[in-house]
Amino acid sequence: INAEYGKQTQTQIGEITVCLNRVASDVRQLKKVARSVQNLSTTLTWEEIVTHLNLEAYREVFTREEIGKMEFFLLSRSDLRELGLPVGARKRILHFTRGPHSG
9-48: string of b/e by CB count within 10 Å (b at 16+)? Predict the structure, then answer.
């Protein structure tokens, strides 16, 4: 019984190790994405951001509501909903401004 229990424990430890390695890999990948987003957000102009995210159709909304680059990065999920933007546009904006798990 002890030998069998030891085998099961070793197997479980191996499975946990594999999972932890996958998580570590995912974290590294997310950090790369975050750095890329940060680089894009600081190097792109406001016009380039709108174009990059395919938000040209909402340019009038941004102008009417006096939203520029600085305000864009402060928009919350509820702000975007209040502006009347569809789900897809809201997801793209939140993903760009907050990272992949914010949409």
Answer: eeeeeeeeeeeeeeeeeeeeeeeeeeeebeeeeeebeeee
Report which secondary-structure segment, H or E, holds 9.
helix 2-43
Q: What is the pTM of this model?
A: 0.59
Tell me the C-alpha distance between 13 and 31, whole Å: 27
Give the mean pLDDT of the chain.
86
95 token code pair: 């993903």
Provide the CA 26 distance to its chain's centre, in angstroms. Answer: 13
Provide DSSP, 66-103.
Answer: T--HHHHTT--HHHHHHTT--HHHHHHHHHHHH-TT--
